[in-house]
Amino acid sequence: MTLTPVSSWASFGGTLSVHDHESAVTGTTMRFAVYSPPQAKKGPVPVLWYLSGLTCTWANVMEKSGLQRTASEHGIMIIAPDTSPRGPDVPDDDAYDLGQGAGFYLTATEAPWDKHYRMDQYITRELNALVAANFPADMKRQGIFGHSMGGHGALTLHFKYPDTYRSCSAFSPITSPSRVPWGEKAFTAYIGPPSIAWEQYDATELVQTRQTDAHILIDTGKADQFLETQLKPDIFIDACETSGQALTYRMHEGYGHDYYFIATFMSDHIAHHAKALKA
Ligand SMILES: N[C@@H](CCC(=O)N[C@@H](CS)C(=O)NCC(=O)O)C(=O)O
């Protein structure tokens, strides 16, 4: 698998680089970014995956969250994949919450989405192998976090692959997509009408049977415009209490759904993963 370099910048003693590659899983050219900390010049470092939200690419978190400073201090590599396959031949929708930019980290089974939309397989298998082969990454020490739709992706991939993604956190995640409009719309389009298949992509369902040894950290703003309609923290908090999943869920007065909020708490999240992965 060949990587095509797109851009590269020095940052906090490390390197932020962007790469393209042909994906056998999505059948498209995929783009992702890597922040490699200075410690990676001496040997493999822990890897932290950041899954972005609706409408985003690799760029939002790398340009707006300021993660490079703390990732550099802790010696953590950060990988930011795209949020969907893209291109003129990839099905799309006029709405921002379906199609390109809205892959929901699942494998679509419904036409026309089923040909390219396989973001969970892309991230857990193909991009994982690419990172292992091309970067000084210690693949035995991986964590995962994300925002909104990407927070949902991080939670579900952690519950499904706890031995791969040993630590987990999220900013303003959708925690029960089966019960909210964003999820209902995307799941119906990608995997068909409500069925047992919905449960395997729903963090609130997964935590009931697949609770892990990790301590999950979640931050959400009390002024988030999606709080009551799309995020519904209480459903997930209750499910974690019932199943015994360790969770710290912090609600922050005045903060919204944006990267000003994420930037405020980014260093806490990287420190949380560094501690769990013993960076
Ligand atoms: N722009 C959309 C909302 C999409 C949105 O808020 N996306 C979040 C993730 S769910 C985001 O991170 N947007 C990009 C950014 O803030 O840089 C709308 O019209 O309501």
From TrEMBL:
Enzyme class (EC, first level): hydrolase
Signal peptide range in chain numbering: none
Pfam families per the UniProt record, alphabetical: Esterase
GO MF annotation list: carboxylic ester hydrolase activity; S-formylglutathione hydrolase activity
GO CC terms, sorted: cytosol
Catalytic residues in the record: S148 (charge relay system), D224 (charge relay system), H257 (charge relay system)
Gene Ontology BP annotations: formaldehyde catabolic process
Highest taxon of source: Bacteria
SUPFAM superfamilies per record: alpha/beta-Hydrolases
Entry EC no(s): 3.1.2.12
Keywords on record: Hydrolase, Serine esterase
Reaction(s) this enzyme catalyzes, per UniProt: S-formylglutathione + H2O = formate + glutathione + H(+)
InterPro entries on file: AB_hydrolase_fold, Esterase-like, S-formylglutathione_hydrol
Keyword Hydrolase in annotation: yes
Similarity field: Belongs to the esterase D family.
Job of this protein: Serine hydrolase involved in the detoxification of formaldehyde.
PANTHER family: S-FORMYLGLUTATHIONE HYDROLASE
Protein name: S-formylglutathione hydrolase
Organism: Hyphomonas oceanitis SCH89
Lineage: Bacteria, Pseudomonadati, Pseudomonadota, Alphaproteobacteria, Hyphomonadales
